[in-house]
Structure formats: C-alpha cells, structure tokens
What does this fold into?
Amino acid sequence: MNWLTRRFPNFEYRIAILIGIAFLSLFPLLGAAPLFDEDEGFYAEASREMLENGNYLTAHINGAPQYDKPILIYWLQVISFRIFGLNEFAARFPSALATFLWMLAIFSFTRRHLGLQSGFLSALFFISAIQVTITGKAALVDSALNLFLTQCLFHLYEYTQNKHRRIYTAAVYAGLGFLAKGPVAVVIPFGVSLIYCLMQRQFRLWLKMVFNLPAILIFIGIALPWYVLEYLDQGMIFIQEFFLKHNLERFSRTFEGHSGSLLYYLPVIIIGTLPHCGLLVALVRQARSLLKQDVYRFCFIWVGFVLILFSFGSTKLPHYILSAFPPLFILYGGVYERLARLRSYLAPAAAFLGIFLILPLAIPLVMPYVRDDFAVCMMGAGQSLFGAGYYLFCGLLIVSVTLLFFAKQSGLLKPAIVVSVAYLLLVNLALMPRIGGLMQSPVREAALIASQLPERAVMWGHTLPSFMFYTRNFVQMRHPASGDLLITKKTRLAEVGPYEILYEKNCIVLARILSQSP
It folds into this structure.
C-alpha cells in the first residue's frame, strides 16, 4: 500500500480498497444461490405478480392481497426485474445496491466527523460483518429501510451541530423509510434525536427540528400519497392489517413463534458482528472515554434506543437489530484505533473460524437430540456437502488470521483487512452456497419440473413462496386429493395416501397423489 501513496500522493487507497471489497462481497455472487424461503421467496413472488398483473398499488401473493409491508420494496424489485429479468440477481439487486450505499453513508459520515481512518474502519467492519453480508444482499426490505433510517439520523445529528439545511434531507429519508417499512422509520429517529438533544440541553432545537413545517411537508409529500391511495382502494382492511396487526400487535404480542428474552439480542450482536465482536468488551471498557465526544455519545444513544425498543417488543427477529449496526460499527472503529494490542480483536475472530471448521463434524452428535423430523432429514442430507474442500478452505482462513498474531504490526489497517476478507470468503464462498444448495436448490428444481406439467401444484405441509416464483404460477394451499401434484416435505408423505414421486432431493418431494383403490 505504501508504494501507492509514494507514486500517487493524492490517491486514497483506503477508499479504493473499501469500495473493491464491498463490490466483490455484494455483487458477483448475488444470483448464485436460489431464493430462500420464506422471506426472499415472498418478496420476489409478490413483485413478480405485481409485474404480471400490472397492479402497482397493492402487493399480492398467490393472487391474494398482502399488507405486511409498504410498497417501496416491490417497486424497486419490479424495476430490477424489468432491467435484469426474472431471476435471483434481479430480486436481490435493490438490497445489494442499498447496502453498498448504506456502507458509503457510514464511511462518509464517520470521515467527516472522525477522520479518514475511522471512516474506513467503521465501513469495513460494517460491510464484512456476518449479518450484514448475509441479509445485506438478500431480497428483503431491511437494507433499503436502514439506508434511509441511517441517513435520516446522520442528517439530524449534523443539523444539531451546524443547523444547516440537513433537516430537509432528513425529511426526505424519513419519508422514504416510511414508504419502505412504515412507522419504525420515524419512531427510531424521533426517539434517538429527542434523547440526544435532552442530554445536550438542546430541547428547543429539537422542537424546532421536529416541527419544521417545510420538513413536515416534504415528509408528507413522499410518504403519504401511497398510504392514502391504498386505503381508498382497500378500505379498513389495510389499516387493520398493516398498522394494527403488523405494527402494533407485532410489538405487543408474539407472531409466528418469534419470541425471546430481554437478552435475545446480545448473542445476535455477538454473532452478527463477527469477526469484529471481540471489540465489544473493549467498547464497554472504553465507554466513559468515548462518551466525551459528541458523535460517539450520539452513537451510544442510538444503539441503546434500538436495543431497548426491540428487546421489549414481543416479536423478536435477528434482522430487527440491524438498525443499531451503523452506530455500533462507528463505535467499533473508535475502539479499534485505541487498542494497545490487537490480540483481543484477533483471538475471537480466529476462535470462531475454528468453530465454523468443526461445526459440520458436530451434526451427527446433535441429530439424536433434534425432535423435528424434517430438520433431522435436512441435517442428514447436509453432511455430504461439507467435505475435504470445506475443511481445507476453513483451515487456510484460520492460518491466515492466526499468522497475524506473529506478524510484525506496521499499522492498524492490515489486520482489519485480512480478518474482514477472511470472513467474507467464508460466508460467500463456503457457507452460503452450501446452505443454499441444501435448503433451496431442491425447491427450485422441483418448481422447474412442475412448471412443465399441466396440473397446478398443491402446497401442503410447507410454505414455499419461492416455488411459486420459479413455476411462474399460483399454487393451491390445501390438503392434497387424488390426482394432485404435491410439493411438500418428505416427512409428510405418510399422511397423504398412495403417491408417485416425481422428484426428491434433500427431503423436499414433488409427488403425484394416486387414486385410492376401492
């Protein structure tokens, strides 16, 4: 890297490295794995149906209107489908692009307030974290939502610092966030900015900021039109389903079994921020020192507000905590720069690589204790995917990180880059292709066979919206009858009577139900 700065004194090699790593992480393998059920399949199928039926106001799944999320993610995917075609790359491209812009927003903000190196480290830690590199390029709404939410909070903070016109751009991002996922895009900026201004004794400034009439009009102009049109088209069912059920009730009671204790998000943060979670202990130790700087104080408030908000919510899912990741990685960057020795950072990264190495070997030991027959079936099918190539690859990654313990340290950047790249390679080349092949390739292959058959398929015992996406057709959701074409779990076949298997792989079965003998 030094030769670049000598040859090109004004060349910011860190920016080039960061953009190169992010691009390679997000885009080249974007369409390699099949769509994952249920969420990726849900969004992709709803967008496909929108493209097919020409109704750009209301999302539909299997021909039925859906009110789970606002419209923006479907519009983005429809545009992507028109450009790239109906495929996995197109379904995921809006999320990957949003994640790329999200990373640049973190870099730009941190660089402005804490310097180039802090900006580089924060953005590098963000883009290489396991949870970001997995969900950041999934066909979900979360990347777009968090891009807008993050930019809104960044601009609100900068308004409190210099009172420039950042409040209007914050209103734009709040409106886009509301169009992406609804009230949460307003609740988090509202709460974080209020607490920060109270701590800074700037409550009057906060009132001026929140009740700024031009900013409110900008927000309403972006966010409100679709909600009004959707209400006029769908009536009270939209209000009841979206606002009451999927927002208020989801917070007040558990949905679909997704519950957890108040400490639910602690392990999510530890695993989700790998390979950089070793900085969490140092962050706690250095909190008092960091709190003396306004920008770090703002980040602590942001992380704390999101953590408390979702910890007290009844429905808990790992991706809910993503909105706390931008300030958390800014704090991680500040902590990393202050480390006297890097061993506390490197040791957990190397240790978790070792866990990923031996994890497949533990599958046979765990299987006798798993009560779900389908999960046992999938675990058994997955053992063959983790052969010598996987162990050799993981072993090389462990060696590369372990060597950093003994290498002469010439700066902070090289260890951070090596660790980050090692985990990006692990996730993108070793884990996700195998998991996708195990769980979703059978669904895609079964769908391609079903699409060539005259019968409309029946789906029972398993919810697989990606099957609809790949067949380009609706399915019937009911108990199968004689003559039906059935897609289901292998473990449910005993419940359907005589059948003929047309396709079977990894416990996913496409079968034709035969007539029972009189």
